[in-house]
Every structure is written in structure tokens, then in C-alpha cells.
Amino acid sequence: MNSYLFFLGQNSLLSQAELTSLIPEAKLTTPHQSIVKLDSPTSLDLPSLGCRLGGTVKIAVLKQTSSAKQLQDDLVKLLLDQQAKNFSLNLLDATNQESYELSNEVKQRLVDNQLRTRFIAPTSTGISPVIITKQKAVELTIDSDFNIYQTTWVHSFKSWINRDRRKPFVTPKSGMLPPKLARIMVNLAVGDKDPGGLTLLDPFCGTGTILMEAALQGIKVIGSDLSADKVAGTKTNLDWLDENQACAPLKPATVFQANATNLKDQLVDQIDLIVTEPTLGPASPSQDKLSDIAHGLQKLYLGALKHWALFLKPQARVVIALPIFHGQDRSYTTADFIDARENLGYNTLRNDLIFTRPGAQIERQIVVLEKQ
Ligand SMILES: C[S@@+](CC[C@H](N)C(=O)[O-])C[C@H]1O[C@@H](n2cnc3c(N)ncnc32)[C@H](O)[C@@H]1O
């Protein structure tokens, strides 16, 4: 059995769902709120798996299993073997003080062995990918069974920031998904299939965030939007992605103007997946209008789902981010119509995933559907 620790991003439930979707055979346990231990019968190709994930920031591999008595000796040997100039020890089951004392003792023994070294104090999830990369730090994580894991992969923070902040076409007022959430949604749809053989549609594509995250995985992407400006902007963003971010040329994308409830006739390709964040209604809605807005949106979403059922392949997945509006007295969800309607043509695989930010008035419920 091969064991790994996955250090999750801000929303650990979504990040775990992404892992389960991509590696359904893996056994997951949670030694810490933001860390998942993954046991796999086969060894994982971490660089290629890591690059696909939106919800994981670091991955550590089991190096050896130690014991309370042997731990200090084993850590010293591991760090000496690697001539670690910077190191960090993250004890999942210890207090900060215990961690600090062990790090100090280990450092002293390394110095006694002629290694000029420095330890970096961790937070509860270790040290950041930026520090690991920039300071070439060796990070070791020790769990309650004295398993010692070494961080061997960290996410490419620069390219995530670039895609979040530097794409040429943005529309802050009508809302854009964070790229990491878009990537997680794509992975919830792809599952354990080969992304290179799939075609994905985003019928409310906006600035193209979802299409960009899918295209980077070799998926053929199709986008549409009611607004001609958004169609042009999505094309601009996909061209920018191709020139600035992609390791290999992206597959040619198709983007056109259409109403999401009536686009079938403009499709040439078969659609394997729909991943989308539909319109959330007017920006800054007034409290007394929330109920009507939620009701109106449900009608649009219902019409769209019925229309999509006409051209999706059987077992095709739809991953859709539906708003939950928080009013002063109550909240209005917009996803409940799906399970209330019989004969809609979809099975609900998940509806328990919520994306939220502190103080947010609108949350997103990520619903995963499968065409019957
Ligand atoms: C919340 S935005 C999508 C944002 C996108 N996920 C992004 O990250 O840029 C919703 C989009 O739906 C479009 N829209 C609104 N009503 C539509 C309809 N009936 N059919 C298709 N697109 C529609 C809007 O123009 C807007 O671009």
C-alpha cells in the first residue's frame, strides 16, 4: 500500500470530493481537518495528479514508519541524507511547544554533524508552498502512528494567481468563479475518465473560467453565453491562456452566443459534460426581492436542464453551481427544484457541497447530476 498526505485548500469538503472523484478506488482518512491521508494500492504519479487538482496545495509521501523512541534519530538521518539547509517538522498530534522542542533538538544534532541548517516553524498544516519552493525547505510531517511523510509536490501558486488576476477579460460585477473552484467542478464532472477524450460545454460561460480550467487538462471545450461581449471576452481569455499558460497547445475551442435554454441546434459535437455557473440574477438584489429572484432563477435552471437532457450522452455528468441567497430573516436555496421534479432525466450524485466565503451574501451549492 502506498500512503500520501494531501494538504487541502480552503474548502476541505470540496477538495476531498475532488479526490474521491478522480481516484474512486483510494481509501481516504482525515488525520486533520485540512489534511487527507490517501492509501492507494498503486503508486501515484504525483506531478501529473497534482497538476490536475484544484483543491490540494501540497502532497507528502510516506518515507518511513518510526517509533516514539526512534523518531529523533530517524529525523536527523533523513535530514542529514538530504543535507537540508532549511527544514520544518510538523507533528500532527503534538503541541506547538513539543514541536518546537523537537525541532530545536534535531537542529542541534544536525549542527553537531557539520550541517549549517535552519528550522522554519510550521502552522497546523505545515509551511506554505511559497516557502517550500523559494527556500528549498524539506518539510516532514509526522502523524500519531509515527509515520514520517515528506512533502514532494506543491501547487504552482504563480500560475493560479496569474489565471485569477491577470486574464485580460474580467467582469467583476457579474461575478467570476475562482479558478480553483472551477477546476474542482471540472474534476467532479470528469471523474476517473481520461480528460483527453472528453468534450465539455459551459452554456453560461461568462469570462470562460471553467473553460480555461478544462482546456488546460486537454479537454475539448465549448462555451456559450447570452451576451455577445462575454462571448468575445471568453475567446480573448482562451487565446491568452494558450499563449501564456499552457504547456502544450490547447485544442481548438468553440464559443458562440446563445440562450442556455435553446442552443442544441448550434452544437456540432457530442457533449460528455456540462460544467457551469448559471446567472445569479441581478447584482446586489434588495431583500424584499430575494424570494421572487430565487423563484425566477429556478424556472430558468429548470428550462436549461430539460433542454440539455435532449443532447447529453447517457451517464453524462452535469456539475452546476446554484446560488443560495442569504436574506436578513431567511435563506433561499435554488437547487431544491431538482429533486422535487420527477422525470427531469437526471440522478443527483451530490448536493452536499457548498462554496462559501466569510460574510458572503450568496453561497454556491455545487450539485453533481448524472443523465439517466
Ligand atoms: C455568473 S455568470 C458566469 C461567470 C463565469 N462562471 C465566470 O467565471 O466568468 C453568468 C453568465 O450567464 C449569462 N447569462 C445570463 N442569462 C443567460 C441565459 N439565459 N443563457 C445563457 N447565458 C446567460 C450572463 O451573461 C453571464 O455571463
From TrEMBL:
MF GO annotations: tRNA (guanine) methyltransferase activity
Xref: InterPro entries: RlmKL-like_Mtase (IPR000241), SAM-dependent_MTases_sf (IPR029063)
UniProt cross-references to Pfam families, sorted A to Z: UPF0020
Annotated Ribosomal RNA large subunit methyltransferase K/L-like methyltransferase domain residues: 173-292
GO biological process: tRNA methylation
Gene3D superfamilies, sorted: Vaccinia Virus protein VP39 (3.40.50.150)
Source organism superkingdom: Bacteria
Protein's UniProt name: Ribosomal RNA large subunit methyltransferase K/L-like methyltransferase domain-containing protein
CDD domains: AdoMet_MTases
